[in-house]
């Protein structure tokens, strides 16, 4: 079962696109300083979207602590996690940006898992 507790929140971000269907997805800050869905598999992740903002609304983004994240494939507890091209957590592989470690596991895409948000950087 996924769980979360107090987060470190990136303050003052606005949604750079309609994120109303992207709650618990992985986001990045774009070149205008707005939160957008991460669409680069294995790329840098700035945090997890906590709400359902539409374009221009305040976007609450967890960047530390434990958060519930949508997954894109099976993940085991203890796995380092990265993003797929739809802003979902997957097991981090070599040359991907690991943004945290799974505390719970999932068996199929679309489930939610708990991640300890702590950027490890690009894995060798």
What does this structure look like?
The structure is a single chain. With 124 residues, this protein is mainly beta. It has a single domain, classed as Virus Head Decoration Protein, Chain: A. It is 0% helix and 39% strand. It is built from no helices and 9 strands. The protein has strands at residues 7-10, 26-29, 35-37, 47-49, 61-70, 80-83, 89-91, 97-102, 112-122. Strands 1, 2, 3, 4, 5, 6, 7, 8 and 9 form a 9-stranded antiparallel β-sheet that branches. The relative contact order is 0.24. The mean pLDDT is 93.
CATH fold-type name: Virus Head Decoration Protein, Chain: A
How many helix segments?
0
Number of strands: 9
- Biggest sheet statistics: 9 strands, antiparallel
Question: Helix/strand-derived class?
Answer: mainly beta
Highest CATH level, the class: Mainly Beta
DSSP helix fraction: under 10%
Q: What is the chain-wise order of helices and strands?
A: EEEEEEEEE
Beta-strand proportion: 35-45%
CATH architecture: Beta Barrel
Q: What is the CA-based Rg, rounded?
A: 13 Å
Report low-confidence residues grouped into runs of 5 or more. Answer: none
For this structure, the quaternary state is single chain
Could you give the distance between the termini?
A: 31 Å
Please tell me the overall pLDDT: 93
